[in-house]
Design a protein that fits this description.
Elements: H1 14-19, H2 29-46, H3 48-58
Length: 75
C-alpha cells in the first residue's frame, strides 16, 4: 500500500454530454480537457470536502482520535 497514491474519482465523456442533450459532433479533445478541468475545479470548490467526509464515514473509514492527531482539536 502506498500512502501517497492518488485515486481517480470521476471522468467525463462525450456520451455524458450527449445524454443531457448536447451535440458533441465537433467537440475536440482540447474542449473536453477544458470542460473536465473546469468540472474538477467546480467539484472541489463546491462539494468535494463535504462528500468526502460523508462517503468516508459510509464506507467505514474511521476518523483519527485526538490522541492520534497529537492532541490537536478539530477545526
Amino acid at each position: 500500500m502506498c500512502a501517497d497514491e492518488f485515486f481517480k474519482i470521476v471522468s467525463v465523456h462525450r456520451n455524458d454530454l450527449e445524454r443531457i442533450g448536447y451535440d458533441t459532433t465537433n467537440v475536440d479533445d482540447a474542449t473536453m480537457r477544458r470542460l473536465a478541468s473546469k468540472m474538477g475545479d467546480a467539484y472541489c470548490e463546491m462539494c468535494f470536502w463535504i462528500d468526502l467526509e460523508i462517503i468516508a464515514e459510509a464506507v467505514g473509514i474511521p476518523k483519527k482520535t485526538n490522541k492520534s492527531l497529537g492532541g490537536a482539536e478539530d477545526g
